[in-house]
């Protein structure tokens, strides 16, 4: 076997590694990564030349399967988890093996299967498909790989399985064609298979993109843009769910005292920071035991899972962690609370009205005592 005979496979290897580098996240610099892969490739090629009696590059996928050994340095050089790295690698193999298989078929039909014919067809196909693949296919595939983690964790497994099956289907089909007489129908079948694979990737990209947009729209509807908390709509949905169940929970209605004075004295930008800081502090106090919602203006509602302890109410009223990162001094908060035990008879509106009245009574009591 001469060096010239390895050129189709070396070209395939180059495009594979370049594609993987574009899709994955390097641990080291581009130059260090390229150097390690080059040294590994030279050592592997030297081993093949020294110990293999005959390695023929017949575009049958065997060398791509042999290329699995590259998962060792790739796993060391890139941050991505193995399933994602392997999925990206298989996707790149589908492209490069598809190009090589088409080149081999072109050469068999029109150039008697000569090495020159394979190289000529391969380079021509890379020239025609290089820009579309790297500008259209790779960015969309990177987008899918980076965002698929937002969905059910099994999605990674589905993509992994789908990509492996596509690659193995291509390998089997190529070997079937090699066992038959060359025919333009073989080329058509390869083109249809590759087109199906990439159209499915485009569809997957569109599905992920639309799902993200839908999630953003849903978040805009149910979340307050200033504090990042769920808004009144989110609160309504959650309370309806709890009232239909059999859990004990508490509802806390919180109204910031003298918030108008904060705006008047420090300005509305500080007022906004005041609201956001209270949202962060109150959420931190409740931690995993509860959720804070922005009800509107300077009013917040919290749901506490179980009967809320008095020490938690005291910590909320005093906002003890306030000083850390506070935009201005804390002017206190009035808190009304109610414990809801099953069976739940009230609806959301009645429940919120009751706890609002409790908050108002506490505020009146503070005024009467000369507090605020």
UniProtKB/TrEMBL annotation:
<feature type="transmembrane region" description="Helical">
    <location>
        <begin position="117"/>
        <end position="137"/>
    </location>
</feature>
<feature type="transmembrane region" description="Helical">
    <location>
        <begin position="184"/>
        <end position="204"/>
    </location>
</feature>
<dbReference type="GO" id="GO:0005886">
    <property type="term" value="C:plasma membrane"/>
</dbReference>
<keyword id="KW-0812">Transmembrane</keyword>
<keyword id="KW-1133">Transmembrane helix</keyword>
<feature type="domain" description="GGDEF">
    <location>
        <begin position="247"/>
        <end position="372"/>
    </location>
</feature>
<dbReference type="InterPro" id="IPR029787">
    <property type="entry name" value="Nucleotide_cyclase"/>
</dbReference>
<dbReference type="GO" id="GO:1902201">
    <property type="term" value="P:negative regulation of bacterial-type flagellum-dependent cell motility"/>
</dbReference>
<dbReference type="InterPro" id="IPR043128">
    <property type="entry name" value="Rev_trsase/Diguanyl_cyclase"/>
</dbReference>
<dbReference type="InterPro" id="IPR050469">
    <property type="entry name" value="Diguanylate_Cyclase"/>
</dbReference>
<feature type="transmembrane region" description="Helical">
    <location>
        <begin position="35"/>
        <end position="55"/>
    </location>
</feature>
<dbReference type="InterPro" id="IPR000160">
    <property type="entry name" value="GGDEF_dom"/>
</dbReference>
<protein>
    <submittedName>
        <fullName>GGDEF domain-containing protein</fullName>
    </submittedName>
</protein>
<feature type="transmembrane region" description="Helical">
    <location>
        <begin position="61"/>
        <end position="78"/>
    </location>
</feature>
<dbReference type="Pfam" id="PF00990">
    <property type="entry name" value="GGDEF"/>
</dbReference>
<feature type="transmembrane region" description="Helical">
    <location>
        <begin position="158"/>
        <end position="178"/>
    </location>
</feature>
<feature type="transmembrane region" description="Helical">
    <location>
        <begin position="85"/>
        <end position="111"/>
    </location>
</feature>
<keyword id="KW-0472">Membrane</keyword>
<dbReference type="GO" id="GO:0052621">
    <property type="term" value="F:diguanylate cyclase activity"/>
</dbReference>
<dbReference type="GO" id="GO:0043709">
    <property type="term" value="P:cell adhesion involved in single-species biofilm formation"/>
</dbReference>
